[in-house]
Amino acid sequence: MTVERSKADLCAWRMEAIRRIEADYNRSADTHLIRVDLPRYPGITLYLKDESSHPTGSLKHRLARSLFLYALCNGWIGPDTCVIESSSGSTAVSEAYFAKMLGLRFIAVVPASTAAPKLDAIRFHGGEIHAVDDPRTVYDVSHRLAAETGGHYLDQFTYAERATDWRGNNNIAESIFAQMSAEEYPVPAWIVCGAGTGGTSATIGRYIAYQRHGTRLCVADPVHSVFHRHFADRQALSLPEGCGSCIEGIGRPRVEPSFIPSVIDRMIAVEDAASIGAMRALSARLGRRVGGSTGTNLIACATLIAEMAEAGQRGSVVTLLCDGGERYGCTYYDDAWLEARGIDWRPHAAQMTAILASA
Ligand SMILES: Cc1ncc(COP(=O)(O)O)c(C=O)c1O
Predict the structure, then answer these.
(1) Is the CB of 60 under 6 A from ligand 1?
(2) In sequence order, which residues have a C-beta less than 8 Å from that of residue 1 and are 6 or more positions away?
(3) Residue 126 domain boundaries
(4) 68-86, pLDDT tens digit by residue?
């Protein structure tokens, strides 16, 4: 039953909603930048932007905040709005957090294969799960649920690049450059990230251009994703067979509206086994578990660092630690789960362990 509310009530509700989000932001500290020395590559240093330290455990905390503010300020969300999102999990966890803060119903449309701990995290923040067998149907199902509930589809894939302030406002790029400012090589030679919506790479690429930095942007993409194919050939718009990567959060079967190839300097395609091997090696080096997409980023970093060393170049390379590994205990950290999928990660782990060796 919808409640008749006056314009003044709605306006007051919205102001309070925005105040709560800004207050939450004001109480939050920025995420850390972890330095990783590489004795094997003198003069080259790797840095990890640790997005797992956000209150909801991933880089998607920033995006969820931006998407809620964007929808509130567009007048798309009110006190009775059911909020819907299509997500591989991380975004839905963060959006459920903000929906709960505003007292709103939240439905996450997720692939049925999503890791159980992620579903638990969505439910922990009061979110409802609507699982779909075919990940390619998440968009249509989200639109249908929005129509049925009279709610609003936040739609990260369309609005990620629009909702995030790429010129500053402490976006992830501004935070990285500020935290690099006292390092030997404060302007990174490369920043490496992945693409799910494409919002993070769009924000970083635009910020680099706007600030006129010499830094180049590299996007690491699972082999079974369309993004690196579209980067090479703009006619490649979707994968007929769907996206066969098991790395959650990155790689897509279709080119998403928030993916902006023109801000990207290079893309590197990475096998899932390599991503998981690198993820395991980095977890051992840091003494705590990281997520799969961080492994994908690291493989691309290793390629760029080897090329820099080959060219006698010194400098810094920054990448994202997108989320913690706690959510992947029953997948990427379960050897039987990996074996059952024929994912031969150990040779890649050994190779990355040598690269990351601290002595
Ligand atoms: C764990 C993880 N890493 C990386 C990304 C990619 O971020 P973006 O959607 O900004 O391209 C995502 C996106 O969902 C993610 O969940």
Answers:
(1) yes
(2) none
(3) 61-160
(4) 999 999 999 999 999 999 9
Q: Which residues of 143-164 are buried (b: 16+ CB within 10 A; e: fewer)?
A: eebbeeeebbbbbbbebbbebb
The finding on whether 274 has its CB within 6 A of some atom of ligand 1 is no
| 3 state DSSP class of 106 | strand
Report yes or no on 18 lying in a domain.
Answer: no
Out of 142, 160, 178, a domain closes at 160
DSSP SS3 for 129? strand
197 found inside a domain: yes
pLDDT, tens only, 161-209: 999 999 998 899 999 999 999 999 999 999 999 999 999 999 999 999 9
Interval 232-261: pLDDT, tens: 999 998 887 666 889 999 999 999 999 999
Put simply, whether the predicted model's pTM sits higher than 0.70 gets the answer yes
Task: Detail the DSSP E strand segments found in the chain.
Answer: 32-37, 44-50, 83-86, 106-111, 128-132, 152-153, 190-193, 216-222, 266-270, 315-321
Residue 171, domain member (yes or no):
yes
Ligand 1: centre distance to CA 8 (Å): 38
State if residue 203 touches ligand 1 by the CB under 6 angstroms criterion: no
In a domain, 286, yes or no: yes
Verify whether ligand 1 is closer than 6 Å to residue 215 (CB atom).
no
For residue 80, the Cα-to-chain-centroid distance in whole angstroms is 29
For residue 214, the SS3 value is coil
Predicted pLDDT at 114: 85
- Tell me, yes or no, whether 152 and 173 share the same domain: no
CATH code of the domain covering residue 152: 3.40.50.1100
